[in-house]
């Protein structure tokens, strides 16, 4: 064992890749594999998002229409059957509030919650949320619980 036969461990050194633009003698000089002229041959080139080589891009060809309300409130829906499943799994017992929903991963901490009326609720629960559909509110109250709006 001496300095002349030292080698790195197998698989530890990645190939360095081809070194382009290092003179004519390397075989990768001149245009440095970029071809002749055009935007892609220049230094500092980066393709813009949606650029189609000068053709009118699709986001400009397609007509725009409609209206987006900037004041729209988005609610994350939670159905009654989901709530009943939580009761069956003994994850909640008599109250369901926003913090519980967040900790169970049903909603995000910055989202607004709306209780929706799909499924049926058999247990008496005090449910607290930002909004309720009429059917959900009726079902909760029919089961003997109460729906509290935040």
Automatic annotation (TrEMBL):
SUPFAM superfamilies: Ribosomal proteins L15p and L18e
InterPro entries reported in the protein's UniProt record: Ribosomal_uL15 (IPR030878), Ribosomal_uL15/eL18 (IPR021131), Ribosomal_uL15/eL18_sf (IPR036227), Ribosomal_uL15_bac-type (IPR005749), Ribosomal_uL15_CS (IPR001196)
Pfam families to which the protein is assigned, alphabetical: Ribosomal_L27A (PF00828)
Record key words, sorted: Ribonucleoprotein, Ribosomal protein, RNA-binding, rRNA-binding
GO terms of molecular function: rRNA binding; structural constituent of ribosome
Region of interest (Disordered), residue spans: 1-52
Residue stretches of biased makeup (Gly residues): 22-32
Record carries keyword rRNA-binding: yes
Keyword RNA-binding: yes
Residue ranges annotated for the Large ribosomal subunit protein uL15/eL18 domain, each copy included: 78-148
GO terms for cellular component: cytosolic large ribosomal subunit
GO biological process entries: translation
Chain's role: Binds to the 23S rRNA.
Family per similarity comment: Belongs to the universal ribosomal protein uL15 family.
Subunit (UniProt): Part of the 50S ribosomal subunit.
Protein name per Swiss-Prot or TrEMBL: Large ribosomal subunit protein uL15
Gene name per UniProt: rplO
